[in-house]
Write a structure and sequence with these properties.
Blueprint lengths: L1 H45 L11 H5 L17 E16 L4 E13 L13 E3 L12 E4 L1 E6 L7 E5 L4 E13 L11 E10 L7 E5 L6 E3 L8 E15 L3 E14 L2 H18 L10 H24 L9 H43 L11 E7 L4 H5 L4 E8 L8 E8 L1 H18 L1 H27 L1
Helix pairs in contact: 3-4, 3-5, 4-5, 5-8
Amino acid sequence: MQYTRFLFLLFCVILIGECRKHKSRKRRHSETAVESHKHGALLTKKAPDGTKSRKVKTDHLLRVDDHDFTMRPAFAGPAVPVGVDVQVESLDSISEVDMDFTMTLYLRHYWKDERLAFPSSTNKSMTFDGRLVKKIWVPDVFFVHSKRSFIHDTTTDNIMLRVFPDGHVLYSLRVTVTAACNMDFSRFPLDSQTCTLELESYAYTDEDLMLYWKSGDESLSTDDRISLSQFLIQKFHTTSRLAFYSSTGWYNRLYINFTLRRHIFFFLLQTYFPATLMVMLSWVSFWIDRRAVPARVSLGITTVLTMSTIITGVNASMPRVSYIKAVDIYLWVSFVFVFLSVLEYAAVNYLTTVRDGKDRKLREKARQQSLPCTCGMSHTRTMMLDGTYSEADTNSLAGYTRASIVPEDPPEKQERMVVHLSLDNESTGTKKKGIRGFSIIQNTHAIDTYSRMIFPGAYIFFNLIYWSVYC
């Protein structure tokens, strides 16, 4: 029994000791937590955590809900000045067929709206994306004569809104626009084109909104790397004027003008040089024997068809205008030269056929006649007249009197005849003068000879006039 009491007392003593140790550990832990909390409070006062602080909403800061932004600033007051500047990013394409151009640009608007003023101790602006644009008033600028336009939206809408504490607003957006350009092709492809991009407010007249270039000519900036394959960009400049609509009134309109000069080298290689070669190739027929009918005819037809193909290819890439272009003049004059070379051979071939027929009749008639000897006649001349080659000799028959013809005996040789001619001194001069011009036409050799000089000379003269006028 005493042993049991002793064990009970020992257990109580051990339990009391454990309780005291637990209380002391708990007291030390609480003191450590209080010290760390005080230290953390000091650190918080030195560098507050911005992520845990309460922020003011944009709508509350700009008081968007306190105003009616469907009306312009200073409603019923003076016109709102809206400055504009443009940075041209790229000039993508120029289309002659559609008569338009495509341009990508940064369009920026500047105005003041006191309803958006907010208090700021640092006088720093706030920048927003396109979501706030739908809640406030912005200028309704559009592109006059535009066919297609869109605001870029990769990866998000390319719209920026920057608001300053005093209410000044910068509104910027990235736009690609395709607009009409009235082009004059009367000097194509040696032409220069001036295209214009026009900006205007759609709803507000000049009494409500005054649209102007913010910095004059410096309001338009371009990238030096802008280039086009067919054009040389000469200059960009800005202008502004009022536009009148009979039903709505006067509006401020801004103009972006740029001048383009076409590169001629491409057209020299693709149009002018091939056309000139075809004309020169048609002259080769003047040196080909007139009896080579297939060679001269095929050469003439080939050059004519090639010129037709060149003309068709050029007109296929051009709009159907009602006036004559500079390239049309060159190509059609070249076509006429090629066609005349074909007609020249047709004339030569016809005259050769007629002359051969006359020679054949002359030989047949000579065979049937028995002519006396011309002994004792003065100024006799003898010549050989070949049945296959008679042009030059036949032309010398003018003013002569046929005397006798002596046919040769061998039948296997070519038929020839010796003609003894007697010249009458009194009638020779008058007859030669009368038929000299006609003999040139009848001489087919002379037609080819003169064509070798006249055709190249006339074409060179045409080129001198053409390039002096259009260059």
